[in-house]
Amino acid sequence: MHFENIWTQSEEVAEALMNKNSGDRPFAIDDIISRLILLKEFEQMPQEERERQMGNILFMLSYLSKSWDINTWKALKESMEGYNIDYLDPDIESEL
User: Fold this and answer.
1) Closest alpha carbon to 80 in 92, 65, 70
2) pLDDT tens per residue across all 96 residues of the chain
């Protein structure tokens, strides 16, 4: 399964959570911030825990992208272009 498919599926699960909670957000921005703070401790975490924490962060971000109707592909593409990466693989660069 491609990342884009997993992301879309994650947004659908997030939407179901929103509907189940009558439109109340199951995750607040503070929840995401607290997870991001854990990133400082990533080097000390076992790989499995790092993956779990990163998954939680990505799921919460997919929730926000769905609830705020953000085109994440476009947002990431434009952000990446803003960094003007010179060392990209020519195949990747041609897709930008």
Assistant:
1) 92
2) 788 889 999 989 988 887 776 656 666 788 888 888 877 777 788 889 888 888 988 998 998 888 889 999 899 888 888 776 655 556 655 555
Q: What is the pTM of this model?
A: 0.72
Residue 96 lies in a domain: no
- Which residues are within 8 A (CB) of 66 and not within 5 positions of it... i.e. 6 or more apart? 11, 12, 14, 15, 18
The answer to whether 60 and 31 have CB atoms below 8 angstroms apart is yes
In the chain, the amino acid numbered 36 is: L
How far is CA 78 from each of CA 43, 53, 72, 84, 94, rounded to the nearest angstrom? 29, 26, 10, 10, 14
Is position 60 within any domain?
yes
Does the residue 75 lie in any domain?
Answer: no
